[in-house]
Amino acid sequence: MLGGAELVEVSSDGGVADKARFVRGVERALLDGEAEIGVHSAKDLPAELTEGLLLAAVPPREDARDAWIGVGSSLDEVPEGARVGTASLRRRAQLLAARPDLRVSELHGNVDTRLRKLAEGELDAIVLAVAGLRRLGRAGEIAFPIPAEAMTPAAGQGSLVLQVRDGDEAALAAVEGVVDGQALRDLTAERTVVSLLEATCNSPLGVHAKIDLAAGRMRIDAFVGLPDGSEWLRDSVEGDSTEPTLLGAELAQRLLTTGARDLLNRAETSGSRRA
User: Fold this and answer.
1) CA 113 to the chain's CA centroid
2) Distance separating alpha carbons of residues 125 and 108, to the nearest angstrom
3) The dihedral of CA 202, 154, 165, 37: what is its sign?
4) 223: which residues sit within 8 A by CB, 6+ positions away?
5) What is the DSSP string of 5-29?
6) Is the CA virtual torsion 151, 45, 21, 140 positive or negative?
């Protein structure tokens, strides 16, 4: 998409529970002058950007939904008591909110590692992002995509973010051709909700924005819940698609008014105990 840019490979660092490690190596390469453009999975990028770096472009978005891999053809048809693996508190919370009978366990590792554990019979199913599986050429593993209304995706899921150094006009010009206005507005709305809720990449929070181009309207849906699925909130707003920040702020305020911050605090406490 960038027209033949040289690829500079970097490594992540940090603990398993710290998703921000996925962006540190890239940002370090940018700040050290080893690269002019950084590429991230948008859902891994913290709400507060690193000083000296800019979010320069968002290319067209892939499918934002989560994917079910394993037994069943829909959430309703998954066998009772099925063993499901996921590393995401957001997915855990929504799975158990919909199906309290499921046995959800923590599952870490790259996509190949997780698929191998499923194939070896340790689990009946796993949940991953549709976008990641497609980009890795593993879309054939998907039993069914989970509808966004049943499992609200993570903010930024399916989107890539291009980052440059503040003041690097040449790098900014280089990424102009890959900017997708709709994807950028979706991501802006979703990141606004995350920021105002003071959530992290590990919070059991789903936020999904979608634009109706014909009507010029944007709808944002959100889910906040406890990891055990015992309590949760769902809410949505709809409005002018040219005002993603205002719509995101409106939804965040509605969630805060109905107790989202308390749920997130309790979820973070339970997550610390589990870790």
Assistant:
1) 20
2) 14
3) positive
4) 90, 93, 94, 152, 205, 206, 207, 232, 233, 234
5) PPP------S-TT-TTHHHHHHHHH
6) positive
Assigned token pair, 191: 């990141």
- Residue 247, helix vs strand vs coil: helix
Which among 50, 8, 36, 2 is positioned nearest to 176, based on CA atoms? Answer: 2
152 φ/ψ sector (left φ>0, alpha ψ -120 to 50, else beta): beta
Each residue's pLDDT expressed in tens, for the chain with a length of 275 residues: 888 889 998 876 544 445 556 688 899 999 999 999 999 999 988 888 899 999 999 999 999 999 999 999 999 999 999 999 999 999 999 999 999 999 999 998 889 999 999 999 999 999 999 999 999 999 999 999 999 999 999 999 999 999 999 999 999 999 999 999 999 999 999 999 999 999 987 799 999 999 999 999 999 999 999 999 999 999 999 999 999 999 999 999 999 999 999 999 999 877 555 54
For residue 273, the model assigns a pLDDT of: 53
- Residue 211's closest CA among 107, 61, 30? 61
Name the pTM for this structure: 0.90
Tell me whether strands 160-165 and 205-212 are parallel, antiparallel or unpaired: unpaired
What does the angle CA 272 – CA 255 – CA 195 come to, to the nearest 5 degrees? 65
CB-count burial class (<10 Å; 0-12, 13-18, 19+) for 235:
middle
CB atoms near residue 157 (< 10 Å): 26
Q: Which long-range contacts (CB under 8 A, 24 or more apart) does 7-14 make?
A: 8/34, 8/35, 10/35
Tally of CB atoms within 10 A around 52? 11
Q: Are 234 and 221 in contact (CB under 8 A)?
A: yes
- Cα–Cα distance, 211 to 215 (Å, whole number): 9
